[in-house]
Amino acid sequence: METTMTTAVPKLTTLHPRISSNSFSLRFSLTFPAKKTALVKHTCSPSHIPLRVSASSQSQAAAEATKVSSIPSEMKACVYGEYGGVEVLKFDDKVSVPEVKEDQVLIKVVAAALNPVDAKRRQGKFKATDSPLPTVPGYDVAGVVVKVGNQVKELKEGDAVYGNINEKALEGPKQFGSLAEYTAVEEKLLALKPKNLDFIQAAGLPLAIETAYEGLERTGFSAGKSILVLNGAGGVGSLVIQLAKHVFGASRIAATSSTGKLELLKSLGADLAIDYTKENFEDLPEKFDVVYDAIGQCDKAVKVVKEGGSVVALTGAVTPPGFRFVVTSNGNTLKTLNPYLESGKIKPVVDPKGPFTFSQVAEAFSYIETNRATGKIVIHPIP
Ligand SMILES: NC(=O)c1ccc[n+]([C@@H]2O[C@H](COP(=O)([O-])OP(=O)(O)OC[C@H]3O[C@@H](n4cnc5c(N)ncnc54)[C@H](OP(=O)(O)O)[C@@H]3O)[C@@H](O)[C@H]2O)c1
Fold first, then answer.
1. Which residue has the CA at smallest separation from atom 34 of ligand 1?
2. Most buried pick, 55, 232, 282, 332, via CB within 10 A?
């Protein structure tokens, strides 16, 4: 059996072969509904779909990035000049390479990842606090430092790094994001890439793992507490489950997803995997110390929290005592979590339909906007 995911995309100008992936460490069975159409076809094997993708071209990509002896003045980037649907996404190969401020480094981007905020921002949902158009989208990056500002203290040229380039997700995110050959980022927002992860795996982590960690911290989560994660298979939820278990010492973890992703939830550490297509989690007799709502069901989430417990919500309307926060990017969070990543306790979950090549950016956006992605959607190679 072969499942396909295809999406009509606007005509774009660059073409690159898809890289092949050849080693995996987190495997589970996943079923996707077959969809019809057209321009690009991704194939998924019927079972044991690899979630952790190790690109054979990784060392080559790093070598190429570090080989950059002279930095060009112009680069290729994904750009939009107006808010709207995926059709506003264009490629421009004459975008100025960003200037590096004193506290910033210039990164040769090897891989970038999409987050729902990239789609919402492009749709104009945050236009009141956005940077001016035209925009090069992209928050998450993994790449190689090719230039450092005067005040940069630790990072140096040739370092392999990763991070979420926007300190505040919604307040003036950078005009020149990570979906480009180069991006300029404050040193404090970055960490060295975990040595055991390739650039594809690393690119998918920053915003999601920072959100997962900050949310758990804000609830006061600690060893021995129980947690229910709503949307355990998404970019954030897949990491909330793992952090709750391996970093915070949860006593019990429950999580929701659709039928095909229940095994994934268990492989990530969930004791109870709830199929939201068959059960209403709010009808279960069990109550939790913390409910982490990564889908926008705060009204129901507050019904299953213990008295005195916490409900953290990432999106949608908030029902007391639930609360919402917006993630702050912080390289120190990544540094704190690097040992858990390097020991293999925390595993990146990369959507098996990817990585998407740079020429498939619009398709990758269409996919994240289905709200069906598993883990992270990564773009590689760039361009
Ligand atoms: N406030 C912040 O700072 C912050 C930070 C990060 C993200 N967010 C927001 O948090 C949300 C989650 O982000 P994300 O990156 O994790 O999203 P994501 O990866 O795009 O989430 C996709 C997942 O949602 C699942 N899903 C869809 N409907 C569901 C339902 N009714 N119950 C349970 N799971 C369901 C899908 O699983 P199935 O296919 O099984 O349905 C899919 O795996 C987004 O709205 C995002 O904008 C906010």
1. 231
2. 232
The architecture (CATH level 2) of 208-324 comes to 3-Layer(aba) Sandwich (3.40)
| 168 DSSP assignment | B
Q: Name the residue of 114, 236, 312 whose CB sits within 8 Å of the most ligand 1 atoms, as the mutation to test its pocket.
A: 236
Q: Which fold has domain 58-207?
A: Quinone Oxidoreductase; Chain A, domain 1 (3.90.180)
Q: With contact defined as beta carbons under 8 Å apart, do 266 and 29 qualify?
A: no
Domain residue spans of the chain: 58-207, 208-324
Rounded-to-integer distance, Cα 235 and Cα 233, Å: 7
Atom number, ligand 1, closest to the C-alpha of residue 259: 40
- Taking CB atoms and a 6 Å cutoff, what residues make up the pocket around ligand 1? 115-117, 169, 208, 211, 230-231, 233-237, 256-258, 261, 276, 294-295, 314-315, 326-327, 368, 371-374
Q: What is the pLDDT of residue 15?
A: 25
**pLDDT of res. 44:** 28
Greatest Cα pair distance in the chain: 63
Residue nearest to atom 48 of ligand 1 (CA): 314
**Cα(237) to centroid of ligand 1, in Å?**
7
Residues of the chain with pLDDT under 70: 1-69
Q: What are phi and psi of 191, to 5 degrees?
A: -140, 160
Distance, CA of 263 to CA of 278 (rounded, Å): 15
Q: Between the CA of residue 119 and those of 59, 76, 80, 171, 261, what are the distances in Å?
A: 31, 20, 12, 16, 23
